[in-house]
Amino acid sequence: MSSREDSKQRLLKAASRLLEFDVESVSVRAICAEADVQLPTLYHFFESKRGLIEAIAIDGFRTLSAALTTAIASNGPKSSDRMRAAFRTQIEFASTHAPLFCLMYGRAHSGGVRQAYLDATIPVTDLFEAAAAAGELSVSALDGATRLHAAAVGGALYMIRADAPNSQQAEAVCEAVLASILRARSQPIQPSDQVPEHAGALLSAIHTSPEALEPEERALFLKWLARLAQSS
């Protein structure tokens, strides 16, 4: 790695570490000091602190996309197992990179960051398109992928901001979504009979901690949960 590329990577890593302390409020001088580079170096690579923050988000989406691709490919031929793996991967990524995940999904993006966000949805979209082609879905591929993605991101943000990681609750959300999108067979996927119960419990939990999600995130999450709670 060249010294120029090394300096760029040090800046990215330094800013990522400072996410723990709200990078928005950290000065560019503090970032440069953390990375052990001179101030002009930051402006050479990123033009501004905003550019550096956007580069961190882009890198995060690329890392998550690679993790999703690996998880989906390594969990056997069954679409349902691959969907569970994709859901768990997003929850685990959020758990181990909470400040980065909030930067990635806790705000609206445009330009290169928006494109990186869209690219990170490709592994799951491809998975659902294959499942739809095989006749395994009761909804469209886009609808199914959107439901799983919204549930994973909304659930992850809720757990981060409520500071209440709950793997069983996350699994219940995943199963509820799968039950609502996978085509029923002679032996229905379990625990499909418990979908309304799980969704209702999550609705109650979110209502007791409304501050855990931003208004837009909460509205989207509640929309899906309300639909699942009314299913039968």
UniProtKB/TrEMBL annotation:
Pfam families: TetR_N. SUPFAM superfamilies: Homeodomain-like, Tetracyclin repressor-like, C-terminal domain. Residues 27-46 bind DNA. Keywords: DNA-binding, Transcription, Transcription regulation. GO terms for molecular function: DNA-binding transcription factor activity; transcription cis-regulatory region binding. Residues 5-64 form the HTH tetR-type domain. PANTHER family: HTH-TYPE TRANSCRIPTIONAL REGULATOR BETI, HTH-TYPE TRANSCRIPTIONAL REGULATOR RUTR. This is AcrR family transcriptional regulator. It comes from Microbacterium endophyticum.
